[in-house]
Amino acid sequence: MDKRECYSGTDDIAYVLVPKFFKLLLKSKWLFKLFKRLFFAKGIYEYVIARTRYFDAVFVEALEQGFDQIVLFGAGFDSRALRFNKLNKGTRVFELDAPITQQDKSKEYLSKRLVIPENLVFVPINFNKESLAEKTAQAGFIPGKKSLFILEGVTMYLSQDAIEKTFHFIADVSGTGSLIVFDYIYGGVLRRENMYYGERDSYKTVAKVGEEWTFAIEESGVERFLGRYGFQQKDHSGSQELEHRYFRNSKGFIVGKINGTHAIVTGIKR
Predict the structure, then answer these.
(1) In the predicted model, what is the mean pLDDT of residues 71-75?
(2) Total tally of structural domains belonging to the chain
(3) Rounded distance, CA 89 to CA 86, Å?
(4) Rounded to two decimals, what is the model's pTM?
(5) I need a surface site. Which of 17, 178, 208, 216 has the fewest CB within 10 A?
(6) Rounded to whole angstroms, what are the CA distances from 222 to 67, 145, 171, 217, 237?
(7) Residue 28 falls within a domain, yes or no?
(8) Residue 151 backbone dihedrals phi, psi, to 5 degrees
(9) Is residue 80 a part of any domain in this protein?
């Protein structure tokens, strides 16, 4: 793991789950540096570290405040339900993702002898064909409760229609005081205006993995976007805010520059 100040993290489960070759990369500074240069756009590594810490903080806040439910869209190999289980006093955590992804995740947990908490519910779903309301209801999600909805690394890959369906669902089932947290890319990024640090590199990286960005929000349009779904902006953090929050070292210096194409938003249901 990266031991540099501001770079080291607390996600020990992620290190357990990563492939052996990646662990070897982490042990060799020059190999990892080469890997980042080949596969990461400038500042994306730092952005992912900051994003993880940001989403961790919101997740923990929901547990400490006794939220009834937490829903993770496209959860992948997210491990927060395990990492923060000791703080969980009764919050049900619903992870939504493709069936094959959840099967692989369950197998990995089993092979690594990681215990799945009783309050974690896997919800296998085909987002293109199945109803969010029906699938979550079948899994035991209760509409109208105080809930946290997490979309980490999701919105930029959705179509406009999928965004509408997903956020309308959240609006319909969220109770007063519910939170939504998501990251997004700026509208200018989709238009390739090249205004932000690391933007040109980001296009190349996205092209390499074959997943084009399809949705964005204008930098000044977040409050309006949230308002359409009954949420008010609680926090809106771009690269500079994230750098000051997560990459300021003990001497007060910024030690990591974050890719400027993304921002993170937290909204609250009033």
Answers:
(1) 98
(2) 1
(3) 8
(4) 0.93
(5) 208
(6) 24, 24, 16, 7, 11
(7) no
(8) -125, 90
(9) yes
